[in-house]
TrEMBL record:
The keyword Signal applies. Keywords: Signal. This is Lipoprotein. The keyword Signal applies. Residues 1-19 form the signal peptide. It comes from Pseudoxanthomonas gei. PROSITE patterns: PROKAR_LIPOPROTEIN.
Length: 143
């Protein structure tokens, strides 16, 4: 029982540790803004200023819409931390996860649990975009 609990705890820590964001600065950062103010665009609005290129990934899962939403929300949070009030969404995709999940037989000391081992493939959702600042008064198209 202790082994099972420890295994689940280690798996949970590995899963949550896999989410992240990378960035390449393209301009100067500004004062942070509330992530709720960050809008998603498909094309750059007139007068927008590029701040950084961002790529984020969700936690490991089974390829759900929630993972996609989490990756885009992470883009918005990281853009807001750089003072961006918009993100030009370049794309969303998925990739095989560095962490897999398996269910099946195992042993601990003299105790053995029977069963058939099954590997369950997991994925991460990834989102890429460019953090931008849209000055007040710019004619920003609706996303």
């Amino acid at each position: 029982m202790i082994l099972r609990s420890a295994s689940l705890l280690l798996f949970a820590l590995a899963v949550t540790g896999c989410a992240g964001t990378s960035r390449v600065m393209l301009g100067s950062a500004r004062a942070p803004v509330d992530p709720a103010q960050v809008r998603i665009y498909t094309t750059p609005p007139p007068g927008s200023i590029e701040i950084a290129q961002l790529e984020s990934s969700s936690a490991v899962g089974f390829g759900t819409q929630g993972q996609t939403d989490a990756a885009v929300a992470r883009l918005k949070r990281d853009a807001a931390a750089l003072g961006a009030n918009g993100v030009i969404l370049m794309g969303v995709g998925s990739s095989g996860s560095p962490v897999g999940m398996s269910v099946g037989a195992g042993s601990f000391g003299r105790h053995t649990a029977g069963g058939i081992g099954i590997g369950i493939p997991t994925t991460q959702k990834k989102a890429a975009g460019v953090a931008i600042y849209v000055p007040p008064g710019s004619q920003a198209p609706r996303p």
